[in-house]
Write a structure and sequence with these properties.
Elements lengths: L12 H29 L2 H6 L5 H8 L7 E2 L21 E8 L2 E8 L10 H16 L4 E7 L7 H21 L3 E10 L4 H4 L3 E5 L4 E3 L3 H8 L5 H5 L1 H8 L4 E3 L2 H13 L38 H5 L9 E3 L7 E8 L2 E8 L5 H16 L4 E7 L6 H5 L2 H14 L4 E10 H6 L9 E4 L4 E3 L3 H18 L6 H17 L3 H6 L12 H17 L13
Parallel strand pairs: 3-4, 4-5, 5-6, 5-7, 6-8, 11-12, 12-13, 13-14, 13-15
Antiparallel strand pairs: 1-2, 2-3, 9-10, 10-11
Helix pairs in contact: 4-5, 12-14, 16-17
Bound molecules: coenzyme A.
The site of coenzyme A has 13 residues, from strand 5.
């Protein structure tokens, strides 16, 4: 056993200062989350009057009472498109992985309390990501739908990719992944195809309006006069059109039916058993808050983080003597074997070569990889270049891109430049990627980017025979740095969906174990695929 020994002075002035800084960053994220939840709940009187349950409550009711819920992409679209005051983050959808009647599945609800649950451009990107996760992790999908369809202020950005979500639904059904939709209210135009392409549909009496054209549009287009009930009501779909398999009396009844259908899915019965018996780390998760220096320029040892994440703090390091800026080693998380890759600085040629070798060893015995990002990027300078940093860095990127073992990334601190690719950032398609509130992801450090543009502009001024304009150069340097700093924060990156969400550092182990169990379940599940999926006749 190789038990990590912590050298952190828990409770010291420095520890408390670091902790305070991280808690402040976490509070900022929580404030954004709460703002959008509060905005949803502000619609309660309207929902009550209509006899409806709010979207967050629908999610709560459909999940098993003791189910965990790992929310996905919760803050996408923050301050983007129609979200003018930062209160509408989430892309119009609330989604995550949890258990419904004992079935691990992807649960998603239209956030119909905000903008009628309409689909913004980031909402479409989120839908595509959710479908990708469901397909890769073989997760059945429950959708609690109530959406006015495309957000018409951004119709052009939503239209084409929106169509891909429908194609994906057909592919998911054909892959053998069941999709269930409850139509709690509006499902207009293209939005009607979301339930239409689901394998099980539940409509809700006096609420469902699933139609291609509502009464005003129908009259304008054809002159026909019809009620919404006749065109797309719950009874009509259950009794006449046959679009729905089940007719519920109200929201709660529909959710009860959804749970009952999942109970009969024959899914959990074919789930590979998960090992429940393992040791907790020797150091409490709370201490994760005080390790990362409030000053990002100060180095710290990522093994202090690992000691608080892995079973029994047991970590067998690989080739420690060869390069200590990149750390690789084996550990267990919830009794599941993993290879951990992390950084204590830039990635050197040796570090890149060692990591590529380590990945091959994990590939050889199917050990999932956990990347804990803390890198300023690949090493630069004559020494690194002459030692083949491009060659070795490319080899590492090849290994990350082509290895077939599951990959999970946690952006713990900085993740810069191609180092982000080498550490399996979003572009390298990890199975899951989550970020800590203090994390930064960018092409390079903000200050360095400012300096680069300053040097380039100064060079141009000199080449054209001008005296360098210091005032203009100062402005260029500062404004560039400020912009990049703002665009590298955790909140900015999560809004752009460069990760699957921001997490409380103290939850990292719990979330990693949950995700590894999700992956493990998927690996052992046999799907009964077909060529065309389930059609309704
Ligand atoms: N695009 C952009 N914004 C929309 C929208 C759309 N398709 N549909 C509704 N909204 C906005 C409203 O402007 C309103 O914005 P506000 O909160 O800033 O005032 C908000 O969503 C809520 O709309 P409201 O009509 O008050 O809520 P509701 O719960 O009574 O009804 C709908 C919701 C979706 C049923 C209704 O707004 C509707 O029928 N919208 C049009 C649907 C449609 O035809 N879509 C075609 C898409 S292809």
């Amino acid at each position: 056993m190789s038990i990590l020994q912590s050298e952190i002075a828990v409770g010291s002035e420095l520890f408390e200062e670091n902790k305070q800084a991280l808690l402040t960053q976490l509070d900022e994220i929580r404030a954004v989350q709460n703002k959008s939840i509060e905005k949803s709940y502000a619609a309660k009187p309207k929902f009550d009057k209509r006899g409806k349950i709010l979207p967050h409550e629908r999610i709560r009711l459909v999940l098993d009472a003791d189910s965990p819920f790992v929310e996905l992409c919760g803050l996408v679209g923050f301050n983007m498109h129609d979200d003018k005051d930062g209160s509408e983050a989430g892309g119009g959808i609330i989604a995550g992985i949890g258990f419904v009647s004992g079935v691990r599945c992807l649960v998603s609800a239209s956030n119909s309390a905000i903008k009628g649950g309409t689909m913004s451009p980031m909402g479409v990107h989120k839908s595509l990501r959710l479908q990708q996760i469901a397909l890769e992790q073989k997760l059945p999908i429950v959708t609690l739908a109530e959406s006015g369809g495309a957000n018409l202020n951004y119709a052009a950005e939503v239209f084409t990719l929106g169509g891909t979500t429908f194609a994906n639904q057909a592919r998911l059904s054909a892959a053998g992944i069941p999709q269930l939709s409850v139509v709690h209210g509006n499902a207009t135009a293209g939005g009607a195809y979301q339930p239409g392409l689901s394998d099980y549909v539940i409509t809700v009496r006096k609420q469902t309006e699933m139609l291609l054209a509502g009464p005003p549009l129908l009259f304008a287009a054809t002159g026909e006069v019809a009620t919404a009930e006749e065109l797309g009501g719950a009874e009509m779909h259950a009794q006449i059109a046959g679009t729905a398999e089940y007719l519920a009396e109200n929201d709660a009844d529909a959710i009860r039916l959804a749970r009952e259908i999942f109970d009969h899915l024959n899914w959990k019965e074919q789930t590979h058993p998960i090992i429940e018996n393992y040791k907790e780390p020797r150091y409490p998760a709370d201490e994760l808050l005080g390790i990362i220096p409030a000053n990002p320029k100060q180095p710290f040892d990522m093994k202090e983080i690992i000691a608080r994440l892995v079973d029994d703090s047991d970590f067998l390091e690989f080739k420690q003597e060869y390069d200590d800026l990149t750390v690789c080693g084996w550990a267990k998380l919830g009794a599941m074997h993993v290879g951990i890759i992390t950084n204590n600085g830039p990635i050197t040629p040796q570090g890149a070569a060692k990591t590529a070798q380590f990945i091959q060893l994990c590939e050889q015995t199917n050990r999932p990889l956990v990347f804990l990002h803390n890198t300023t990027g690949f090493m630069v300078g004559t020494d690194a270049e002459q030692n083949g940093i491009i060659k070795h860095g490319s080899k590492l990127i090849q290994a990350v891109a082509n290895c077939s073992v599951p990959k999970i990334s946690i952006v713990v601190a900085g993740s810069y430049g191609a180092g982000n690719y080498a550490m399996c950032g979003r572009p390298l398609a990890p199975d899951f990627i989550f970020a800590w509130p203090n994390s930064h992801v960018a092409v390079m450090g903000a200050a360095q980017a400012g300096k680069v543009l300053r040097i380039v502009a100064e060079g141009k001024q000199k080449a054209s025979g001008m005296e360098p304009n210091e005032q203009m150069l100062d402005f260029l340097e500062q404004s560039t740095a400020m912009k990049l700093e703002q665009q590298s924060t955790a909140l900015f990156n999560t809004a752009m969906m460069h990760d699957d969400g921001i997490i409380d550092p103290r939850d990292t182990r719990k979330i990693l174990i949950f995700l590894l169990q999700t992956i493990y379940e998927a690996e052992y599940r046999m799907l009964k695929a077909s060529k065309f999926g389930v059609s309704r006749f």
